Amino acid sequence: MSCEATSDLRIAVINCPGSFKFDPLFVRWIDDVSLPLGQKVEWSVFEAEANELSKIEENFDAYIITGSRHGVYEELPWITGLLSWIKATHEKQKNILGVCFGHQAVAKALGGNVEVNPNGFEIGRYTTAVSDEAVAYFKLLGTWDQLETTTSPPSIDMMFVHGDYVVPSGVPPGLTSMGGTPLSPHNGFFNGTNILTFQGHAEFDVESVELCIEKLSEKGILPKRLPPGATLEQVKATLGGRVDAQWIALTALRFFQNESINQR
């Protein structure tokens, strides 16, 4: 199925505070897929911690909520404001892509439950299961058959850096789980219309994950909060493996583009 463009997309990135700015990573990640297909994107960036959500117009084609060093359960004014904004924007049926913290923020805003993961940090490259319902949705978007490597049962590979998770019973009403790993059972959500989330960081390259490992180690969080038996050496050894970042970018692009599909 073609992803040829007919008009420019307007996408707003909502930067949440982390070890570095996320928006350049998202711009590169999407543009690397969209520009060869003739799809131009007009990017705007808003800082959640600076209370810039009130400046966001409603005529964007999609909104991306980034990762963060914070937890969505923290009672900080900017997080409370973000959760309210997500709920209001969802009620207007605007397209929202949530990544890592953004995935968890969408879940919490729409009635899910997010906690510190008792299993430890999911960090490095992981293979995450893809549910049958998610496969059906990706086929509707026209991207599933373009996945580089297909497995049975279905799965995708991506980078992860997270110590919180959506608890097993914490799926928000109206959303469907994409599947997950033994450490994190819900590594993505979708509703077939205007919500798509990924717990993993498809926008991250190896250097991004290495920087996160460095920062978390400086804070004493790693290796302390690695899963039982895991070592930093094992985590770093996973980073050179193949990931499905380009396919996830294409899927996100189709989600942004396809009003006709997203309204079915």
> Approximately how much helix is present in the residues?
25-40%
Poorly predicted residue ranges:
260-264
Output the radius of gyration.
17 Å
| Helix-strand sequence | EHEEHEHEEHEEEEEHHHH
Mean pLDDT: 94
Shape: globular
Main sheet: strand order: 2-1-3-4-11-10-9
Approximate strand percentage = 15-25%
Give the class from helix and strand content and strand pairing: alpha/beta
Tally of helical runs: 8
The counted number of beta strands is: 11
Major sheet summary line:
7 strands, mixed
What's the end-to-end separation, in Å?
17 Å
Based on the model shown, name its key terms.
264 residues; seven-stranded mixed β-sheet; 11 strands; 20% strand; disordered C terminus
Short description, anyone?
By secondary structure, this protein is of the alpha/beta class. It is built from eight helices and eleven strands. Helices cover 31% and strands 20% of the residues.
What do these coordinates show?
- The protein has helices spanning 23-34, 77-91, 101-109, 132-141, 206-218, 232-238, 245-257, 259-262; strands at 9-15, 41-47, 62-65, 96-99, 114-116, 122-129, 155-162, 164-166, 176-177, 188-190, 195-198.
- It has 264 residues and is α/β, with parallel strands linked by helices.
- Helix 1 (23-34) crosses helix 7 and helix 2 packs across helix 3.
- The longest helix has 15 residues, at 77-91.
- Mean pLDDT is 94; it is low at 260-264.
